[in-house]
Design brief:
GO molecular function: protein phosphatase regulator activity
InterPro entries: ARM-like (IPR011989), ARM-type_fold (IPR016024), HEAT (IPR000357), HEAT_type_2 (IPR021133), PP2A_Regulatory_Subunit_A (IPR051023)
Largest sheet: 2 strands, antiparallel
Distance between the termini: 71 Å
Strand content: under 5%
Structural class: mainly alpha
Helix content: over 70%
Protein name: PP4R1 phosphatase
Radius of gyration: 23 Å
Pfam family, one: HEAT
CATH class of the largest domain: Mainly Alpha
Shape: globular
CATH superfamily of the largest domain: Leucine-rich Repeat Variant
Order of helices and strands: HHHHHHHHHHHHHHEEHH
Number of domains: 2
Keywords: Repeat
Length: about 260
């Protein structure tokens, strides 16, 4: 029964964590028994079982319970087959896995398929998922691969005929910009952002204006401005050490004068 297999998949992660904590007693149980089940259920005939298998796999990867060899030789080949152009919606797992795998694995095994999905001409839903996760993929592979392989695809998505695609690109623009060099940011991404902020669709323009401040912040020097991107993709400010020392060591009248001069 599919419901039984689905329930089984939901129990796999806690069992795996227990086996990991009790590894001296069960040194090979996970790799001999549980991992083959997860791999098999990734291609189950039932869609709900496949989804449960994918969620279990993500938890196992986040907990660092799957060996790198198994990821590259057992998991990734199946995921690449599942995310083929004629697949249903299994391509989403490719985007989700990018944040929990090593940079080398993502770049060599998943990035080519992601670039292929960005140009999928059959289903706009595929391209929209790629656009929504574009910043995470850039962050996963780093500057060199982003500028060489992803920026051309980003240009395609930013000029997509579906306005929802362009809106998704505007929303992740800051994360993409943060991964590139200052020269690419200035010469390529700035004109591209202007095109989004001047888009014919007001929803795209609104999303671009909301990303304008975060995009401008990527031009600042992180070491002096204290700006950085959190793991959830939001922009944050890291307080400087000098600020912390001045607030606890300086007399109150000096703090007031600094605040006044800053306001002035």
């Amino acid at each position: 029964e599919p419901t039984v297999r689905t329930e089984l998949m939901e129990q796999i992660p806690p069992i795996a964590i227990f086996l990991q904590e009790s590894r001296p007693k069960f040194p090979t149980a996970f790799f001999e028994y549980l991992m083959p089940i997860v791999v098999r259920y990734l291609t189950d005939v039932n869609n709900q079982v496949r989804k449960a298998g994918q969620e279990a796999l993500l938890i196992l990867l986040e907990q660092d319970l799957v060996a790198q060899n198994d990821i590259e030789n057992k998991v990734c080949p199946i995921l690449l087959d599942l995310s083929a152009p004629d697949s249903d919606d299994e391509y989403k797992i490719i985007c989700k896995m990018a944040s929990v795998l090593s940079r080398t694995t993502v770049e060599h095994m998943l990035l080519p398929r992601f670039c292929e999905l960005c140009s999928d001409g059959k289903l706009f839903q595929v391209r929209k998922i790629c656009a929504a996760n574009f910043g995470d993929i850039c962050n996963a592979v780093g500057q060199e691969a982003t500028e060489r392989l992803l920026i051309p695809k980003f240009f395609e998505l930013c000029s997509d005929s579906v306005w929802g695609m362009r809106k998704a690109c505007a929303e992740c623009f800051m994360a993409v910009s943060y991964t590139t060099s200052p020269e690419v940011r200035r010469s390529k991404l700035s004109p591209l952002f202007i095109s989004l902020i001047s888009d014919t669709c007001r929803w795209v323009r609104q999303a671009a204006f909301q990303s304008l401040g975060p995009f401008i912040s990527t031009f600042a020097n992180p070491s002096s401005a204290g700006l950085y991107i959190r793991e959830d993709g939001t922009l944050s400010i890291r307080p400087s050490v000098q600020d912390g020392n001045s607030s606890c060591c300086q007399p109150s009248n000096n703090i007031t004068s600094v605040s006044s001069s800053t306001n002035a």
